[in-house]
Amino acid sequence: IFGLPLLGIIADCHGARWVVLGGALLYAAGCLLVPASTGPLDLYLSLGLVIGLGLSSTTYVVLLGAVAQVVPPERRSTSFGVVTAAGSFGTFALVPIVQWLISDRGWQGASPVIAALVAVIALLAFGFPRRVGVAADGPKTEGMLLEALNRACGHSSYWLLNAGFFVCGFHVAFIATHLPSFLTDNGLSQMIGATALSLIGLANIFGSSLFGWLGDRYRKKYLLSVIYFGRAAVIGLFMLVPLTDYSALLFGGLIGFLWLATVPLTSGTIAQIFGSRYLSTLYGIVFFSHQIGSFLGVWLAGWLFDSTGSYEVVWWIAIGLALAASVLHVPIADRSVENDCQYSN
User: Fold this and answer.
1) Does the structure show a pLDDT above 80 at 39?
2) What is the Cα 47 distance to its own chain's centre?
3) Model pTM?
4) What digits encode the pLDDT tens for the residues 88-140?
């Protein structure tokens, strides 16, 4: 549900302010509903549907589309990196706090506090423009939303970006969900797991900012290829060295540096090729691919662990997918479709 591109389409058509405002309130309501759940169906509706819709209204799909309307193309990747880094700071700051709340009050007692924090997003929503802006760099042939969708669906590089982001989703969801369990199953403490996740958020602040800045200076597709190859190397080393507190924290820092550095580069590449007018929609579809990978990363890892008693197979799958994604980004044609139209005329 988090990955559905519906909210990106609504934001492109009607503006991001009301999407973010409504999503934040829905998100907070979901956090309050979770402790009242009495069975699986209640959890699917509250934690899955309500919070999923709230998340999809407040995530990068909507935010980056709004930012792209007001930032010049030559600074767009850097700006996307800053927004991504801000989200990562939330991971760094809140994971230890939430872990402390859960330890002190239980997860039921922590939920209302989380709901109050999420509700702050509703106030920040008023900082967004009320109406959709006019993208300065949109192709003259861009036309209506359906025309933009048809143009993207007929562009092979758009599907390569979808495939790459699928791999990204598999990585981040698998690690974020199962890394703490993997560590505790191997004798490390719960706090080490929480600290490793926090380090992922901290390191990603620097990684997203740096790669966003580099994306305005070098070809984004090559930077994406480097990131995915780096993930394969980091995960491979993590599998080969002895597992200790230090190696777990080092892994958190290294994988965190590459964690969401793909976001400013992937979204920036989409805007570079297709313009920014319908970025929330086009990036939203790519993000949906990311979330399909996320679903598989979480579910497949759990199923394989239940079947084999180990996460080892999933780690090696993650390495193979990273190497494949590294190769897939090389042939991407990142030239603007506006240039292609002018050339053909």
Assistant:
1) yes
2) 18
3) 0.83
4) 888 778 877 888 888 888 888 889 999 999 999 999 988 887 766 555 454 44
Evaluate whether 20 touches 304 at the Cβ level (below 8 Å).
no
Structure-block tokens of residue 131:
């109406």
CA 164, CA 161: separation in Å to the nearest integer? 5
Q: Give Cα separations from 27 to 51, 67, 124, 343, 345 (angstroms).
A: 5, 22, 14, 47, 48
